[in-house]
Structures are given as structure tokens and as C-alpha cells.
Amino acid sequence: MKIKILPWAILEVATLFTLPRSSLGQTWQLTSAPVAEWASAASSADGRTLVAAQYMSDGNYNPGWVYVSTNAGADWRQTTAPRQFWQAVAASSDGARLVAAASADASWQPGGIFISTDGGGNWFRASVPSQTWAGLASSLDGTKLFATGWYGLIYSSTNSGVTWRAGDAPLLYWQGIACSADGSRVLAAGFGDTNVNPNLLYLSKDAGAHWTSAIVPTDRWKSVASSADGKNLFAVTTSGLIYISLDGGDTWFLRPTPAEPWSSVCCSSDGLRALAVSGGSSPGVIYATTNGGKSWGPASPLNGAWTCAGSSADGTRMVAAQGGYQPGHVYTWMLPPMLTLATTGSSAVFSWKPGSGGFVLQQNSGLDSTHWTDVTNTTPLASNPGVISLSASLRPGNHFYRLRSR
């Protein structure tokens, strides 16, 4: 039996091929979350608990709700958080501590910050001044919280939202904010100054008490993301730029990507996997990197007015939602397990570890075709615990195989 690794990272065994797991576009799934103008989404460390907030529940200026899923987006429930014009959500690593911030309440007055310590079952309003809140970030344990205001200040809490204080960051039109796992390092996006001129990124190395501007061009900074150690940073602008830092924000590098109106960026805890989405008055795109932002590529054929994205700690589960200027959907993505292939006589044996999600084996006659079909003529085989093995008869010609989430 001849086995070789091809330059494009596809394994060839006789005339059978298995696609690499990095084919991100294969497994984006429409979830059952209601159609709405989604503003923000966040994930627990394992990607099983998702929280998503609506700016508006429809296109008729009705305030939105906060929804939670505890099975990676398969099912969603509306929480008891009050109806607000929500702008941001964040979650602790276990998904138990959730925080949501609104730009305005149901009466269009400056919004509040609401906190849940039981996965969205109950909520209380934090004792923090009302603002037009724009961004949220949480440490892994949920004890350190950070919030930005649109033409406001940056507030932080070190006791899970019981008390808050404003740091010395300037009064700006702030947007996204991100922090390291322990909450000691924080990155905030300055969208505009008090005259709404383009502004800068700002950094804090003492949990939000003191801030300094980063050495970056002035721009419409929209969203930021941070690795667990706070060293690998990502920042996107609505003018179409993606920047990365590999040293905690001391130096920044512009990466070659399409000039899209980027709206959100998220990353894995090691900073290697990241997702950026764009959207606005016209459909946007989803781009991804698996090498810390050095190179980016399309992660999905889906287009939409994307507003937000979230990632599990290991980057194997992602969530993205639509809602820019029109109601949209919530989608999830999961990295397929490693598919292995072997031949025995006139049969091929496919094996993979199912993990926490269901997958189906699909086949195609060529990579230039989009006509993937489920493989149905298989025989289950007895295998090691935690491994799925299927046998299929060999046929003449080249055949390509992949796993797709159900």
C-alpha cells in the first residue's frame, strides 16, 4: 500500500483521499436561534455554553433579549435578562458567570450592565453608572470584568461585578475590549475621539487602572481579541484593516486581508486560531487564521451582515452572528475530528473520534466539485472505545472524503 503526503496536506491511500481538517468552510451550521439583529456572542472555554444578545428582536426597533445555549448552539433559550438594546456579552470559562451590557434600555435611556452567576437563570443589575455601553470582556474565572462606553469611559471590576471603577483612559467613543485569562492585561479599541475623529488602541497592564495608547495609526478601531497570556493580540477596523501584535501590544503588524468593514474578531487561548467577520449595509465575509494571524483566508462561503464572533479556548468551536442593519441568524462551526483511512483488501476503513458532536462521512469525485454526498453504503465495525469505524467497498477512480457536522 502506497502512502504519501502531498504538498497540499491531503493524505493519499491508493485512489482515496481525506481532506485536511483546516477546511473551515465545510462545517458552518445554521442554529435554531431566532432571526434577530444580533449584536454580540461569547463562548465558554469548551464551546458548549454560548451566550448571544440581540440589539433588536426584529426590524421594528423593539429591544432585544439575551439567549443561552448549553449544547454548542443546537438549542437556545431566552433568558430572564430584561429587554434592552444589547451591545455586548461575555462569559467565564465555565459558562456560569455571564455579563451583558446595553447601549440603551427599553425606553432609549442610557443602558446598564447585567450579571448572571447561574448561566443565565437569574440576572442582577450591576452598580455602575448608566452609559451607552459598547464592549465587554471577562477573565476566565469571571472575577475581573471590563466594559467600554460609546462616548464614555472604561470601567473595571475585580469582584465579579459587585463594584466598579473607572480607570484613567480618556473619554472616547470606545468599541471592543479584550483581556488576558487572568484579567491583568487589557486591550481596548478607540473608535473616535470627542470630535469623532479616528483614534487609537489603548493598553492596560494593571487590570484596567492605567491606560496607554498603542503605537498604531489612528483609525476606526472596532474589535479586539487577546490570547490567554495577553501576548498575541488582534485588532480590526471598519476601514478594512487587521493588525496583530505578538508581544503584548508593544509592536503591531498590518496583515494582508481584504478591505472589508471588519466588525468583530475573536481568537483561541493560544492565539493561533482567530476569526474575523465583516458586515454593515452590505453582506460581509468570514476570514480565519490558524497561524496567529500571519496569513488569513476565507473561512466560509456564507455572506451576511456579520456583527460578532466568539471562540472556545482551543479554537475548535466558533460562533458568529448577523444583525448589521437587518435581522439575521446565528451560526456555529466545529473543527471536525481527524479522519483516518486504511485499506484492507477490496474495502476502505474510515475511523474518527466523535468527540462531543455528531459527524457524517461525505464523498466527492473531485475537489473542483461542490457536490458532496453522504456515504451510505458502509458497515459499522467493532473498534476501540470512543472511536467510530466504518467499512466501505472500493470503487475505481479517485474519491475524496470529509467529515461534516450534522
Describe the structure.
The chain is mainly beta and 406 residues long. It has 2 domains: 3-21 and 337-405, Sandwich (Immunoglobulin-like); 27-334, 7 Propeller (Methylamine Dehydrogenase, Chain H). The protein is built from no helices and 38 strands. Strands 13, 14, 15, 16, 17, 18, 19 and 20 form an 8-stranded antiparallel β-sheet that branches.
Note the main sheet. Answer: 8 strands, antiparallel
Whole-number total of structural domains? 2
CATH fold category name of the largest domain: Methylamine Dehydrogenase, Chain H
CATH architectural group of the largest domain: 7 Propeller
Uncertain regions spanning at least 5 consecutive residues? 1-15
Q: How would you describe the shape?
A: globular
Taking Cα atoms only, what radius of gyration do you get, to the nearest Å? Answer: 22 Å
Tally of strands: 38
What's this model, at a glance?
With 406 residues, the chain is an all-beta fold.
Features:
single chain, 406 residues, mainly beta, Immunoglobulin-like, Methylamine Dehydrogenase, Chain H, eight-stranded antiparallel beta sheet, six-stranded mixed beta sheet, 38 strands, globular, disordered N terminus
Topology:
Elements: E1 3-5, E2 11-13, E3 16-18, E4 29-30, E5 37-43, E6 50-56, E7 66-69, E8 77-78, E9 84-91, E10 98-105, E11 113-116, E12 124-125, E13 133-138, E14 145-152, E15 154-157, E16 165-166, E17 172-179, E18 186-192, E19 201-204, E20 212-213, E21 221-226, E22 233-237, E23 242-245, E24 253-255, E25 262-267, E26 274-278, E27 286-289, E28 297-298, E29 306-311, E30 317-322, E31 330-334, E32 340-344, E33 347-352, E34 359-364, E35 373-374, E36 378-380, E37 388-393, E38 399-405
Parallel strand pairs: 3-38
Antiparallel strand pairs: 1-2, 2-3, 4-31, 5-6, 6-7, 7-8, 9-10, 10-11, 11-12, 13-14, 14-15, 14-17, 15-16, 17-18, 18-19, 19-20, 21-22, 22-23, 23-24, 25-26, 26-27, 27-28, 29-30, 30-31, 32-33, 33-37, 34-35, 34-38, 36-37
